[in-house]
Amino acid sequence: MKLTKERIVDAGMATFAEVGYHGLSMRRVAERLGAHAGSLYYHVRGKDELLALMADRVCRQAYDAGTAALAGLPPEATWHDAIEAQAEALRRTIQQHPGGAVLLADSPRTLSSGALSLMERLLQTLLDAGVPAAHCVVAADTLLSHVTGFVLQERGNSPAPPVTAEVHADLRTRFPLIIERMPRPSRDDMFQRSVRLLCAGFATLVEE
Amino acid sequence: MKLTKERIVDAGMATFAEVGYHGLSMRRVAERLGAHAGSLYYHVRGKDELLALMADRVCRQAYDAGTAALAGLPPEATWHDAIEAQAEALRRTIQQHPGGAVLLADSPRTLSSGALSLMERLLQTLLDAGVPAAHCVVAADTLLSHVTGFVLQERGNSPAPPVTAEVHADLRTRFPLIIERMPRPSRDDMFQRSVRLLCAGFATLVEE
DNA sequence: AAACTTTTCCAACACCGTTCGAAATACGTG
DNA sequence: CACGTATTTCGAACGGTGTTGGAAAAGTTT
């Protein structure tokens, strides 16, 4: 079958899901398509462009997931709910691809039309909520970078660290607050609450 | 001169600053030390460990920068100022290393003692501010992941994208909010305001 | 069918992380 | 000092990577 930018990105996403970020190579992507690595370069400038295209696709998926989530919202939902729905959709979408956060992190977000779509809708939500235009960009940017950062951190912590008892005791004396006194809610819970925290901040900007 | 874990991390940081994340190789690090690549493996398990050590060093630097910033605060400073100072110190430190955000992103933050130090102090600040312990971890985590995400986004935008007039016109019709109506404050300004936004969210948690 | 364009192959290049046995160096002991 | 041992470095090698460029194939137009 003929080689296409679209099909290459497809294969890229599939390979990415299988072998992760570090295992993604042009040769493996080509192999999945029954082609040779060099052939990809006729359709794609290099690995960088492929990664950028993949990142854009993730943004697009997140956008679609967001529209679905927004559509499922009850009519009495507030703008808090709308923002929460978009944030959660973005997080879930990134999470679906192992290492997907790094993917987004490694390619410039601006001028990727998928990323711009996400931004645009978020801005609209905030404007509708009554946040003055002058503050909207800051607010939307804050939310987006927060979600990215959160998922990034999440992935780093996910392989449960093998903590020996000895290490734990050491940590307890050196970082008493973290280890001892702090309740550790689930990541899902923490994410929801952190987004609500942001919304509370946004609310202080709303002009009646 | 003798090879050491410490000296290897030094050379790693220097090489990293010169050639960036993608250009960092064991061979280049070794070359800077007048040694061969294989020799590094006697002191370091592999490139992963080197990167983790480097990430930890960045956290340490950020911690020290934070203490300096806190010390320079006037006595009438509020807890908002204290959090802002720590966030700004972290951002500046990460920024000093090109691609430093990706460095932090690619290594697990937990169990890195530098990262834990950052977290611990942030928790203390929030506790002193009156945020109940049950919410502190969420708040601190939110702030840290926000700063990371922000710098990440910042770096992606930094190489000013070559926007042709044609592309700009296309974007204007497709994303009117972003391109047209939104004022674009400086990144410094945006960062400060986003942190204040977070603080406003934290303030709603404070029990009198 | 011939001329031409688009697409794919394939071999090669330079570089990468990592391993391993052999050298070399340092060091404590007789 | 000399000798044996432990620590450290070398240097070559292996399999893998992104990328290139000319030859070959496939498709299209005249």
Automatic annotation (TrEMBL), chains A, B:
Claim: Transcription is one of the keywords in the record: yes
Record's keyword annotation contains Transport: no
Domain (HTH tetR-type): residue spans on this chain: 2-62
Pfam name, any one: TetR_N
Gene Ontology biological process terms in this record: negative regulation of DNA-templated transcription; response to antibiotic
Entry's Gene Ontology molecular function annotations: DNA-binding transcription factor activity; transcription cis-regulatory region binding
InterPro entries hit by this protein: DNA-bd_HTH_TetR-type_CS (IPR023772), Homeodomain-like_sf (IPR009057), HTH-type_TetR-like_transc_reg (IPR050109), HTH_TetR (IPR001647), Repressor_TetR_C (IPR004111), Tet_transcr_reg_TetR (IPR003012), Tet_transcr_reg_TetR-rel_C_sf (IPR036271)
DNA-binding residues: 25-44
Keywords: DNA-binding, Repressor, Transcription, Transcription regulation
Protein name in UniProt: Tetracycline repressor protein class H
Native source species: Streptomyces natalensis ATCC 27448
